[in-house]
Design goal:
Taq DNA Polymerase, Chain T, domain 4, alpha+beta, Alpha-Beta Plaits, 4-stranded antiparallel sheet, 4 domains, about 500 residues
Length: about 500
């Protein structure tokens, strides 16, 4: 299959056939000179970025066979940090044999289409990382000053309440203030003393106004350290942040983001808007965001084939309101009832049991158990889906998405009863979250092909699980919005329709 394949041994660009390597000073010239179109290697995204930066045209026509990526697909629980580790595992010192063995397993396990998808995603991520997102440094600095001033005022107010200065970021100091000075009731004890975690503060909040000040201090301190100073650290010389996307880390197939993590920006209205405004599209440009509506629940409906759930999505009804009507047996649904139904819908996706739901909703375990039982009575096929997952774990030791992505649970048969509960929750979620990840990856490829074929001045800069963020020209054609939405809604065929919403703005607060 690969008549002219080259193996990339290290980032020093040692290329060659088999185990005979040739050191290359100018990778770009070497690739052009040898007319290379297929490159075999380990962790190739950095090399792809270098080739793009060197001026290689139509990188999409190159076939990068990344063995690290291939083994992530074969078994995401196995982590290989180098090509030599993979050679030792497969008991070979010949790279041609390493390649053939890997591709044979990919074919045998029916992973060829997924591997092709992941290879395309790897190139797209390389472009996204090189593009980066511009930062409004002046605004960032103003937020930094504002937060520091607010934190200083809060500290003075807390010192005034207690009567002396202390370090509110110190667990030792907080234990003394909360439990010795204020004599509040602790709820958890660690080896080193009473806990001062967020759950404890939530419990103590009604006992003292000081705790409310402390919670606000923690919130502002996290915003400052994680999102202001943390983002500031990663601004490059071009005034942009170039995050690194990882596609071979999360077991479900989701992409993750590091240095910095741009998938974990605050989601609440006040803080989320403030932090996202740090990012700007640039002069004459704007952000356009496309996100899938309730994709996890749609994938659940596809997986379990529950007729009621499918009907809700086919009729484009509010799934949480519709669930509330079924559970509570009334057409007049209150906001509180919808909130309960929403918590149950999403809780089921993550295998939440009565105890977890009771904490989420602030109700008794008995009430939570009753809600879950009622849910399963109304959506019987979801219960069948749970049984199917358990059967797959017992018989195969893995579960998979509708596109065939697998996740192994090797400790399932030897796990204790308590451990099995946790593993089962992960197994329930995997075909749903993994299926959603497969959908958005398909969407990324299809939209990228649409942009390239139409030579559009549009850049994909960020993926946040069920959302794609682009930079458009400000005077974009409205037809493009409909085209991209249609592509994302039709990129895969499920038993329920996919739905995409979009919005635009000159800053990333959209």
């Amino acid at each position: 299959m690969y008549k002219k394949a080259y193996y990339i041994k290290t980032k020093k660009h040692l290329l060659g056939n088999g185990i005979d390597f040739v050191e290359v000073d100018d990778l770009y010239r070497y690739v052009i000179l040898k007319n290379i179109r297929q490159i075999i290697g380990f962790d190739l995204k950095g090399l792809i970025k270098e080739l793009i930066s060197s001026g290689i045209e139509r990188i999409e026509n190159f076939d990068f066979v990344d063995l690290k990526l291939a083994w992530y697909l074969i078994d995401s629980s196995r982590k290989f940090s180098s090509i030599n580790e993979l050679c030792d595992f497969l008991k070979t010192s010949h790279y041609s044999e390493l390649l053939s063995k890997t591709l044979d397993i990919i074919k045998k396990e029916g992973l060829e289409n997924l591997f092709d998808l992941e290879k395309k995603i790897q190139k797209i991520l390389a472009f996204m990382e090189l593009e980066g997102i511009s930062v409004d440094f002046e605004y960032l600095s103003s937020i930094e000053k504002k937060l520091k001033d607010e934190i200083d005022l809060l500290k003075k107010e807390m010192f005034g309440v207690i009567g002396f200065e202390f370090n509110p970021a110190s667990t030792k100091d907080l234990r003394h203030v909360l439990f010795d000075v204020l004599r509040l009731t602790p709820i958890k004890k660690r080896k080193t003393g009473y806990s001062t975690d967020d759950e404890t503060l939530n419990f103590l909040e009604n006992q003292s106004d000081f705790v409310k000040l402390l919670k606000k201090f923690r919130n502002l301190s996290k915003l400052l350290s994680t999102y202001i100073l943390g983002l500031k650290e990663w601004i490059a010389d071009d005034g942009k942040i170039h995050t690194t996307f990882r596609q071979d880390v999360v077991a479900t197939g989701r992409l993750s983001s590091i240095n910095p993590n741009l998938q974990n920006l605050p989601s609440d209205e006040e803080n989320g808007t403030m932090i996202r405004r740090i990012f700007v599209a640039g002069e004459g440009r704007c952000f356009v965001s496309f996100d899938y509506s309730q994709i996890d629940l749609r994938v659940l409906a596809h997986e379990c084939e529950d007729p009621e759930m499918i009907r809700f999505f086919v009729e484009d009804r509010d799934i949480h309101e519709s669930t509330a009507r079924l559970i509570f047996g009334t057409d007049q649904i209150t906001n509180e009832q919808r909130k309960f139904a929403k918590a149950i819908n999403f809780g089921i996706v993550y295998g939440m049991e009565a105890y977890g739901l009771s904490k989420t909703l602030g109700i008794s375990v008995e009430e939570a158990s009753e809600f879950i039982n009622l849910y399963f009575k109304k959506f019987a096929k979801v219960k069948d889906y749970f049984a199917r997952i358990e059967n797959e774990l017992d018989n195969f030791g893995y579960v998979k998405t509708f596109m065939g992505r697998r996740r192994y649970f090797k400790s399932w048969k030897t796990a204790s009863k308590y451990e099995k509960k946790a593993l089962f929750r992960e197994a329930i979620n995997m075909p749903i979250q993994g299926g959603s990840a497969d959908v958005i990856k398909m969407a990324m490829v299809k939209v990228y092909e649409y942009i390239k074929s139409n030579k559009l001045d549009i850049k994909l800069v960020l993926q946040i699980h069920d959302e794609l963020v682009f930079i458009f020209p400000e005077n974009y054609d409205e037809k493009i919005l409909k085209d991209v939405s249609n592509i994302m809604e039709s990129c895969v065929k499920l038993k329920v329709p996919l739905k995409v919403n979009y919005k635009s703005g000159i800053s990333f607060k959209i």
